[in-house]
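DoxX family protein: structure tokens wanted.
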Amino acid sequence: MAYSDTLDRWSPYALAVLRIVTALIFMLHGTQKLLGFPAPPQSGMPPVLSLFGIGAVLELVGGLLILIGLFTRPVALILAGEMAVAYWMFHAPQSVYPVLNGGDAAILYCFVFLLFVFTGPGAWSVDGARARTGPRHSWER
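Answer:
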């Protein structure tokens, strides 16, 4: 067995670990803005129907869905879009350099979520469990 075959065997699990860790950290951005946990944002708690509030809902709910691997591809596409908008709307106007404008996390989240759009959730996901069980009713085929 070749070395690359051994590593390839573990790639669904490595992808799942990336998905889970990304989701947990991403959800903290939502809990901070919505619940003030682990600490309230410096700018104060945003109204839920504001741009920051809607972003917080996407971060918390979308992060939870990514965490459990449910509707991973469409949710990841929405979150990648959210992060692209966040970068270009809030970070890029400050400077063209991500290290100076504080947008490096937004860029990384955007591309990690884009990766999930194309790869799916990896192992340990509700999407994977649903695919294994198949349709339960005739109209789901």
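The chain has one domain: 3-140. Residues 3-140 form one domain.

Cheers.
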